[in-house]
Amino acid sequence: MRWLRGLFVVYLAAVLTLTMWPQLEDTSVPGWADATIEALARVGIHVDVTFLEAASNLVMFLPFGVLGLVLVAHARRSWGAGTLVLAVAGAGFALSTLIETTQLAIPGRVSTLQDVALNTGGALVGAAAAEAVRSALRRRVVPPSGRPDDEVPT
């Protein structure tokens, strides 16, 4: 679990670096966006910068949901699945709100409620997916009776 916490710290550092960097126009981000749009168009998927930015905000917080769920589930084993997912999504909302509020003071950054909503959605989807996988794996664990859980008489 220690390596997972380390991975989460590295992920958070990357998110904070990306979201707190002043004036993205001075970086390779605008070129990356154009290159991505062109690459997608070559395979028949037509998107614009607005869609790409929205999708990026959602995708950026998927790892938050996945890693956060696994870490919280390990620390809070008595919590139910719904509580775990909502707690991680709430933490994603709090982090996104902090980022967007901080961006108000950073030259060249634009803070929007849409970013908060999409980041929170990414955390929620990531946490729900991680919980679905955890739940499926728990059902496949063989109990001491030697029969898979779904075959144990109730």
TrEMBL record:
Keywords: Membrane, Transmembrane, Transmembrane helix. InterPro entries: Teicoplanin_resist-assoc, VanZ-like. The chain crosses the membrane at residues 50-72, 79-99. The keyword Transmembrane helix applies. Coiled coil: none annotated. It comes from the Bacteria. Pfam families: VanZ. Residues 8-130 form the VanZ-like domain. Signal peptide: none annotated. This is Glycopeptide antibiotics resistance protein. It comes from Xylanimonas ulmi.
